[in-house]
Amino acid sequence: MDYPATFEFNAPERVARWRVIGNLILSIPHIIVIYLLGIVGTVIDVLSWIVIVLTGKLPAGLAGVSCMLIRYQTRVGVFIVFMRSSYPPFDFDTSSQDNGKDPEVTVNFEPELEGRSRLSVFFRFILLIPVVIVGMLWGILAELAAIVAFFAVLILGRWPKGLLNFIVGVNRFSVRTSAYWSLLTDKYPPLGLS
User: Fold this and answer.
1) 159 exposure class (CB count in 10 Å sphere: 0-12, 13-18, 19+)
2) Which of 45, 90, 50, 51 is nearest to 67 (CA)?
3) Which of 27, 76, 106, 142 could be a cystine partner for 170, CB 3.0 to 4.6 Å?
């Protein structure tokens, strides 16, 4: 693993045309859960920041909750943009390694628990500025790609390969950025999509 957070997606060959709208409607319960977990995630991020700055260590329990949150959000995000047909599980496993309950989306982490850079963590918000700017650009391009994919899937019943690869890359970038933001690693996330 070259970065301590990975995203893998097994794309289906065909996507039912109704999923371009149906998946968004079906994901409403997950969106509510993500909203509530987002509140928990904010508290966990603040606690992690305080603990790492004071001790130089990240407790495994805090890291596990962050891993679960990122994994859950990623699985639901892939479903919302109609890249998959199976309904994402309501899975709240806090292990760093994916438990395999969702065979289409795999998100693994290798959180750094010991020997953390207190200085890097202390200034994390400043260090994130370039990543956030690049992430906003990738996000805008991903929204445009999703609009094109909406019509492509509606007409063809499948994702065009180039668009699919681009959206998978943006998801990979998002998982890495989230791991850095959530203090799971001090390794700066690559700004590319590979």
Assistant:
1) buried
2) 45
3) 142
